[in-house]
């Protein structure tokens, strides 16, 4: 499912216009992104937690030449599913 399909499904189920649903979805995504940029967790009890994690630097290989390269440390977004979501997907 992509964002447009999500907006359409929510609009159909709730009777709210697609424009309003899209505005809410975009606002939600912006708030989660802003929180993660500020290294805050975004937690929805039962659904899951969006957070950032630190990746340490490591040695990799250039796939074309086989040459060893150093991959720098970075911060990456992560999602940890909650118990209700895990149970629903089983």
Automatic annotation (TrEMBL):
It holds the Pfam family Bac_DNA_binding. Residues 53-90 are annotated as: Disordered. GO terms for cellular component: cytosol; DnaA-HU complex; HU-DNA complex. One of its GO terms (molecular function) is structural constituent of chromatin. It comes from the Bacteria. Keywords: DNA condensation, DNA-binding. PANTHER family: DNA-BINDING PROTEIN HU, DNA-BINDING PROTEIN HU-BETA. This is Transcriptional regulator.
């Amino acid at each position: 499912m992509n964002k447009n399909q999500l907006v359409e499904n929510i609009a159909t189920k709730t009777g709210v216009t697609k424009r309003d649903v899209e505005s809410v979805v975009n606002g939600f995504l912006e708030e989660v992104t802003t929180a993660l940029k500020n290294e805050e967790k975004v937690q929805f009890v039962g659904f899951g937690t969006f957070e950032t994690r630190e990746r340490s630097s490591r040695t990799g290989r250039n796939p074309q030449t086989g040459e060893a390269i150093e991959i720098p440390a970075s911060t990456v977004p992560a999602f940890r599913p909650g118990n209700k979501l895990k149970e629903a997907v089983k």
